[in-house]
């Protein structure tokens, strides 16, 4: 009795969780899993993965980050384009030994132009100065500085792309699990219906036996209790199915509130030997590729920091109008008392700029070299971790497949036992308790087989994710 009640409670709990009924079903169970729920859109696993790769919110955000990184990588290249700036100034200041005063600015390169006012005595009288200028600067040769900056940002974009590939594998895993969850929930609902139908048949048989005086009222009461239990299981199974379909829709990214799983199950193809899988994981897994990208990024950032200390050659040109209110030494004056920039000038030049030593840039370069060592160590750690992950998933898959074979045999034996108990009950040789015990044993075996199938599917999906296998 305790064994029977515990088995039924466990079965009902597993039904409420919607555990997977995956490869290894009978033909009737396969048909139940494949049948489409009325009124719902249905996707096969391949269709669901393809749709999710385009519409899944996580992947949409990941692709947006890649585009943003690629746009940022185009910024340094713009330094090869000419830059144009302008300035307008009006100042009041003393002009000892100078007839015009202007402020430096980063937009326009202005040479010193103007007569010199020579005076033996300092003059603290303020005079007006005005300036209007437009300037152009064009990069000529940068000794690889811009290329190093671009390479660093390209490496950042590549890292984002590798992260997107990892996110795609994660979404594929989530969609696969959600797909099988829907098929499982449908199979569980079908199993619950069949169990409830058998319980109703047993109850009717018990009622007829009581009326005929062949059964005791205890048998009927027990049968009624079993019918009630399996009706509850049906309700829970339908709730699990609705929840699984809602999760499937969310993971795939469809706008519908629920999505059904259609199509046929895929073939259980061999993934290769453990040695081959380990080799793939050490170099080809998403985590290792991301670690490689982080190493490349660290090296590129170090080169970009070092390149900031290289010379720079650029062309500069400007057109300006200026005036100073102070009288020059030669006595010539300009109208407007310095408030009107009436004196025109233009200039063209080639400038070589050499940063001889910048302690901040040198310190940054040295710090980034240390980061390179960290990223290299992380790469080796990632290789080791991925090898362990693949080995664990592979051994888990082997164990799950072996256990599933035993569970299949157990389920077949439980069905045979139930059929014998049912035949004895119909012939009047068996009791209701014997039949209920056989029913509980059959249901428990079916659930254990479902759990075993779920473990196989989960282990296989985890192994595919670990070796970055795209379905």
Automatic annotation (TrEMBL):
The keyword Translocase does not apply. The keyword Cytoplasm does not apply. It holds the Pfam family OEP. Keywords: Cell outer membrane, Membrane, Signal, Transmembrane, Transmembrane beta strand, Transport. GO terms for cellular component: cell outer membrane; efflux pump complex. SUPFAM superfamilies: Outer membrane efflux proteins (OEP). Its main location: membrane. Residues 1-28 form the signal peptide. It is found in: Cell outer membrane. GO terms for molecular function: efflux transmembrane transporter activity; porin activity. Belongs to the outer membrane factor (OMF) (TC 1.B.17) family. This is TolC family protein.
